[in-house]
Recover the amino acids of this structure.
């Protein structure tokens, strides 16, 4: 066949492959690697949730659910969000169960963006944000949060990025990859900015359960922000359910109806057995979640202190399970550091620059790994840095 | 005694892994090494931390012979000392690994380790059931240990199933 033109969509052709891919390929072929490159919990889903999914299969619950998800699950999500995060959403028309928080991000962006609309993405950020904005026809506008402010975005930086095409801002607190969590005062300041410029906020709160030092404040709980927020959360991190692909989005009735249109045509509904597992995870009480949180917190303390002892300066991340130390003292770039560390000491980390230019000079280390692995990783990183 | 938050953390950490170094414990709870050592000493002195042991899977060791039995014991409590006196008479035997006072159909749960079923049987008939306060005994032999004190002996799939690098 004679091919005279590319059949690929321009938007897709223009997307850069994720920089994480390269390190995956490098590390995947090696033996004896300790991986701190994993963006998911090291816990397995609680047995009670797994058992509930098995039971749902045995009983033959293998058909579609309502587009927005099982009403019973939405009811539980609603009371969970009220109890844990003090936000009130009607399970009938303000909550959609999605295929992971990722799909929630996708339908949220598609529901609000017209071609050329701008979305502010605070970098360093989760690698999917900017591509998802582009795929939804929007234009991602990166703003750099810097180490100087513990990677907390400053309003004067946002002011410079805002234009009359700006429609929304993507927020992720606690943050992947920096672990930074915004406190109530910082959210209040952000809310003033949002109000002033009449913007929406896509608040990715997937790490909300993993806030270690201060109680978590949802952006939707800030006065006046509920109707401007598309609140995205899910079961992956807090409930150790990444592989189930189950998340949800909460928003006002108008936004939810718009997202549901996309969801019903593009996805129909989230997987049924996963919904039954999530139902049990929410009903099953808080013990598993609290135990995991405690364990992460101890490992964070151990790991961040150890990095600082080695001479890789690292702020204390308030949430999630990532440490984002500076490697500038080694004279290497993020990519050089990550590549050499992997080859010489077999420790996999993710170079900070894949999360945005302000991530350069840093590496992302996930401490969602056993204490034994962390201890060994610290030994190896120390040896590498001292070489 | 009421424990502070840090003390409680130390207890939880050591209960999971008694061999962890004080340096690592110190980092995990955010105290100095000296403070951590003092805290552990205090908890040991107060007998909150009673003793450090190791969970051993003896079934892995060639030539090891041994059986474990759980014995339900009904006893007559004595005025003044209740069950304590008979419990003490039982736990002094070195074959006895645990003694618990139970609610329900019997009074004391006694765990015994011996070299053989015969040895355990001899202990029950000669030592245990001949005690004055003991009314009856029911002996159950343990066939296989799957999980002991929170530790699974042969985890089915302990390997990390996560892909090595993910966003």
């Amino acid at each position: 066949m004679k091919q005279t033109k590319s059949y690929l969509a321009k938007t897709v052709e223009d997307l850069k492959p994720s920089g994480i891919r390269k390190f995956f390929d490098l590390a995947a072929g090696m033996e004896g690697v300790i991986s701190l490159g994993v963006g998911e919990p090291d816990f397995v889903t609680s047995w009670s949730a797994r058992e509930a999914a098995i039971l749902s299969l045995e009983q033959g619950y293998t058909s579609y659910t309502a587009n927005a998800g099982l009403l019973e699950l939405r009811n539980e999500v609603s009371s969970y969000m009220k109890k844990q995060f003090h936000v009130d959403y009607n399970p009938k028309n303000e909550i959609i169960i999605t295929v992971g928080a990722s799909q929630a991000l996708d339908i949220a962006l598609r529901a609000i963006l017209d071609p050329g609309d701008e979305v502010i993405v605070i970098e360093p950020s989760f690698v999917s944000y900017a591509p998802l904005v582009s795929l939804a026809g929007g234009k991602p506008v990166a703003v750099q949060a810097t180490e100087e402010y513990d990677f907390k975005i400053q309003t004067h930086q946002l002011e410079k990025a805002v234009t009359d095409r700006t429609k929304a801002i993507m927020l992720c607190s606690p943050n992947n990859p920096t672990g930074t969590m915004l406190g109530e005062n910082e959210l209040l300041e952000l809310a003033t900015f949002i109000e002033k410029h009449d913007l929406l906020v896509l608040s990715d709160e997937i790490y909300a359960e993993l806030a270690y030092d201060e109680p978590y404040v949802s952006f939707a709980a800030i006065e006046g922000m509920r109707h401007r927020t598309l609140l995205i959360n899910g079961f992956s991190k807090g409930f150790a359910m990444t592989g189930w692909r189950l998340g949800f989005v909460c928003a006002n009735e108008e936004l939810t109806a718009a997202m549901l249109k996309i969801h019903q045509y593009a996805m129909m509904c989230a997987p049924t057995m996963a919904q039954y597992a999530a139902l049990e995870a929410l009903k099953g009480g808080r013990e598993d979640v609290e135990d995991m949180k405690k364990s992460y917190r101890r490992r964070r303390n151990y790991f961040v202190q150890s990095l600082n002892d080695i001479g890789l300066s690292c702020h204390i991340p308030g949430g999630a399970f990532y440490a984002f130390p500076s490697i500038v003292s080694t004279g290497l770039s993020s990519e050089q550091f990550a590549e050499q560390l992997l080859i010489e000491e077999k420790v996999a980390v993710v170079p900070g620059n894949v999360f945005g230019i302000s991530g350069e000079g840093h590496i992302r280390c996930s401490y969602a790994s056993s204490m034994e692995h962390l201890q060994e990783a610290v030994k190896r990183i120390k040896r590498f840095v001292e070489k | 005694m009421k424990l502070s938050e840090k003390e409680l953390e130390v207890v939880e950490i050591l209960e999971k892994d008694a061999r962890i170094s004080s340096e690592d414990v110190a980092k995990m709870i955010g105290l100095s090494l000296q403070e951590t050592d003092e805290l552990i000493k205090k908890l040991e002195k107060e007998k909150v931390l009673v003793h450090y042991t190791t969970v051993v899977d003896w079934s892995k060791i060639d030539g090891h012979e041994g059986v474990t039995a759980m014995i339900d014991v009904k006893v007559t409590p004595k005025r003044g000392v209740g069950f304590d006196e008979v419990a003490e008479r039982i736990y002094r035997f070195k074959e006895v690994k645990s003694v618990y006072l139970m609610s329900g159909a019997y009074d004391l749960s006694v765990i015994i380790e011996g070299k053989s079923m015969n040895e355990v049987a001899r202990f029950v008939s000669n030592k245990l059931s001949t005690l004055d306060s003991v009314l009856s005994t029911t002996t159950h032999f343990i066939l296989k240990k799957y999980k002991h004190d929170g530790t699974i002996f042969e985890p089915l799939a302990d390997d990390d199933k996560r892909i090595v690098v993910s966003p």
Remarks:
- Chain A touches chain B at residues 18, 20, 23-24, 27-28, 33, 35, 37-40, 42, 126-128, 176, 294, 298-299, 301-302, 305-306, 348, 350, 371, 375 (CB under 8 Å).
- Residues 341 and 347 of chain A are 6 Å apart (CA to CA).
